[in-house]
Amino acid sequence: MNDIRIQLERKIADAADGQLSDAEILRLEAELQQYPDLLQDYEEIMSQPDLANLYGEVEDISSFSFQIESINQAISKYNREYQSFEEVTIYWFKRYAVAASIGILVLASVFNLSAGSSGQYDDTLVISEMLYPNQQSDVDDYVLYLEEISNQ
Q: How many CB atoms lie within 10 A of CB 9?
């Protein structure tokens, strides 16, 4: 009995795909009268609209294969120029590391010039704060002084 249900389910799928003739569909509907649950599934499946006509015909597949082939050729040409991942990485790293270094140098120079022209920054103080940030500064002494005063 289980094999019959499986065969009917396969026939329902074939009917939904349009692979059965009119005579086979009539035979299937007659067989489904013994299985009301499968008959209900069959009716629901067959009542679904046909979506195949919504998207139209597929264009010429050769144009897609031509595009794919041109992409493959570009990739293989690129792979011939740079044989390994390491070579590609080094090539792009050198290219952009120099640009980034120049950008950082320019920004640091602009910052240094703007700070030096206003006279607000002492170079030795800025450098010492950058190199030794964990050393106690005047601000820390002032905070400790305020805490001592508030505790008295």
A: 14
Instruction: Let me know the angle formed at the C-alpha of 108 by 104 and 113, rounded to the nearest 5 degrees.
Output: 150
Residue pair 89/96 in contact (Cβ under 8 Å)? The answer is no
Evaluate whether 129 touches 137 at the Cβ level (below 8 Å). Answer: yes
Neighbours of 19 (CB within 10 A): 10
Please name which of 37, 47, 34, 41 lies closest in space to residue 12, comparing C-alpha atoms.
41
- Residue 118 confidence class, pLDDT cut points 50, 70, 90: low
Helix (H) or strand (E) holding 73: helix 61-81
Per the structure block, which two tokens stand in for 2? 């289980």
Segment 28-53 shows an average pLDDT of: 83
49 vs 40: CA distance, rounded Å: 16
Poorest-pLDDT segment among 57-61, 64-68, 137-141:
57-61
Give domain limits for the chain.
2-46
If you average pLDDT over residues 65-71, what whole number do you get?
79
Task: Write the single-letter amino acid at 26.
Answer: L
* Cα distances (angstroms) measured from residue 141 to each of 138, 147, 148: 5, 10, 11
Predicted pLDDT at 132: 67
